[in-house]
Amino acid sequence: LKKVPLFDKLSESQLEPISRIARRRSLSAGSILFQEKDPGNVFYVVLGGSIKLFTRSAGGDEKVLSVVGAGDSFGELALLDGLPRSASARALETSLLLEIASDDFMRLLESHFDITKGILAELSRRLRQTNEHVSDLTFLDDRTRVLKNLINLANQHGKRDGVFINIHLALNYDELSQMAGVSKQILSEVLRELEAKGVLTFGINRYTLNLTKLRG
Ligand code: CMP
């Protein structure tokens, strides 16, 4: 628990009751944890793996809002405003979660101001990120949006190896193009262009950025 940023300011004696109320849950790759519009009464912390949070249009197209990994939390909105889940959640790989029931979550917010501040900071971060995404959709060209999305994924999920950053995520071209807000056709054109410039190499579930080439 100490490794989870939301709880890292708490002492061992403060963490002990949390480990008693939290339950571990493992999810197999591809399984759905909940669907958008479901009622929600559980808060989740990711201990391992990665979870895709996404919405669907009336026509069935998906929009990936975020991919969360170890140390991240999600599922707080339905608990805080009492409305249904604002997005669906699917495991991209085998994942381990910590579940905290709504009543226990509320008691934690009441008794630990550091946790409340952590949740507020996370909500603020997401609002900033969403504002940036809206302005990117308005002002950036397609190519820059694809590159920026890769850089965001590298910052959040990448592992540095010398001048390379490796992103291992089970995100297909459909999902990457939705995240960047471009068509699949444009996405594959831009990926090939970046590959030709030596900025990017990619394979199944793997994207590697070359920092030296990226700076150029
Ligand atoms: P909740 O609405 O309970 O269930 C879906 C969860 O997805 C939501 O809580 C948030 O935790 C998370 N979520 C919704 N929108 C975003 C977003 N734009 N960025 C990151 N996470 C989000």
TrEMBL record:
Residues 6-126 form the Cyclic nucleotide-binding domain. Keywords: Activator, DNA-binding, Transcription, Transcription regulation. GO terms for cellular component: cytosol. It holds the Pfam family HTH_Crp_2. It comes from Cohnella rhizosphaerae. This is Crp/Fnr family transcriptional regulator. GO terms for molecular function: DNA binding; DNA-binding transcription factor activity. It comes from the Bacteria.
